């Protein structure tokens, strides 16, 4: 069992557990240090820090930010940032508006196909007025299920899988890393070798991966996530070697989105093929908690 997990989602983004449920599981499972890394929001952080104090679990203020790198969607983790600074609110407001525009126009584009496939169309206005966390692949899939366009959530995911174009018109990596630094945080490249939302969208061999990482380092990157449920053992090894070579922090976390039963489908395995059965099951060395 690990004592550290620096990559956990809650229902402030696309995770299924509340902050309080995550903290309770962390305590029960022997985790001593965790980071809540919700997508494009720090809304759960303050609550997590407070509950963590009560339960004796250290919570590192963090976030997972969707960025544009060479017109591809990539995730950057920000750790130990000043989450009370008002700049962060403005940054995420701007980012979430960009996501909203993208997903509303995608739904508009897909509506005629939805009609052909299911006989039903999604209500664009209703979707547009949704909470920010709907503006993602799982968010849109859940919306389609909730609206009764598909009966099962797996059908919604399946429909969107090869049709939905991921947003690439977001805030770029350079500006995002600069904002993380301005807020006193560290910027870490999330799951660099996972099947999706990773460097695999830009390259397929180590030499090219290294060139991309060198480019990120020029922009100020501080670390790469090595231990990750999206990585095979070989990929973890490669990430560790690259972290050492470039003197980057090597971080790790499960990318927890809730228990597999709660997730109610296999879609999570497309992102994280080695998804843990329990929070705390993914191996992360203790010293990573000293981030
Ligand atoms: Zn991610
Ligand atoms: Zn994540």
Distance between the termini: 19 Å
* pLDDT < 50 stretches: none
The Rg value, from CA coordinates, equals 18 Å
List the strand order in the largest sheet. 1-2-3-4-5-6-7
Which descriptor suits the 3D outline?
globular
Oligomer: single chain
Give the ordered list of helices and strands: EHEHEEHHHHHEHEHEHH
Q: What is the helix fraction of residues, given as a range?
A: 40-55%
Largest sheet: 7 strands, mixed
- Average pLDDT confidence is 95
Tell me the fraction of residues in β-strands, as a range. 15-25%
Spell out which ligands are present. zinc ion
Structural class: alpha/beta
Number of DSSP-assigned strands = 7
Count helical runs. Answer: 11
Fold blueprint:
Layout: E1 4-8, H1 19-28, E2 33-36, H2 45-55, E3 58-69, E4 72-79, H3 86-118, H4 124-128, H5 137-146, H6 153-161, H7 173-182, E5 186-189, H8 206-218, E6 223-228, H9 233-245, E7 249-253, H10 260-263, H11 267-271
Parallel strand pairs: 1-2, 2-3, 5-6, 6-7
Antiparallel strand pairs: 3-4, 4-5
Helix pairs in contact: 1-2, 5-6
The structure holds zinc ion (ZN) (2 copies).
Residues 7, 9, 37, 64, 255 line the site of one zinc ion.
């Amino acid at each position: 069992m690990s004592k550290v997990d620096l990559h956990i989602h809650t229902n402030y983004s696309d995770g299924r557990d509340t902050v309080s449920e995550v903290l309770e599981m962390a305590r029960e499972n022997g985790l001593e240090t965790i980071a809540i890394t919700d997508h494009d929001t720090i809304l759960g952080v303050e609550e997590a820090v407070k509950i963590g104090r009560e339960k004796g679990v250290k919570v590192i203020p963090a976030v997972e930010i969707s960025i544009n790198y060479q017109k591809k969607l990539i995730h950057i983790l920000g750790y130990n940032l000043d989450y009370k600074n008002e700049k962060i609110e403005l940054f995420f407001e701007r980012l979430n508006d960009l996501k909203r525009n993208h997903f509303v126009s995608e739904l508009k584009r897909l509506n005629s196909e939805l009609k052909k496939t299911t006989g039903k169309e999604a209500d664009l206005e209703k979707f547009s007025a949704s909470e920010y966390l709907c503006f993602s692949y799982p968010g849109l899939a859940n919306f389609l299920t909730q609206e009764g366009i598909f009966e099962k959530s797996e059908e919604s995911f399946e429909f969107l899988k090869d049709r939905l174009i991921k947003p690439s018109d977001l805030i770029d990596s350079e500006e995002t890393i600069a904002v993380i630094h301005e807020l006193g945080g560290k910027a870490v490249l999330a799951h660099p070798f996972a099947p999706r939302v990773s460097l695999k969208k830009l390259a397929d061999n180590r030499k090219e991966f290294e060139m991309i990482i060198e480019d990120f380092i020029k922009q100020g990157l501080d670390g790469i996530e090595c231990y990750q449920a999206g990585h095979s053992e070989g990929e973890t090894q490669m990430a560790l070697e690259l972290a050492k070579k470039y003197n980057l922090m090597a971080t790790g976390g499960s990318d927890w989105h809730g228990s597999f039963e709660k997730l109610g489908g296999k879609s999570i395995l497309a992102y994280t093929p080695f998804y843990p059965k329990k929070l705390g099951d993914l191996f992360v060395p203790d010293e990573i908690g000293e981030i």
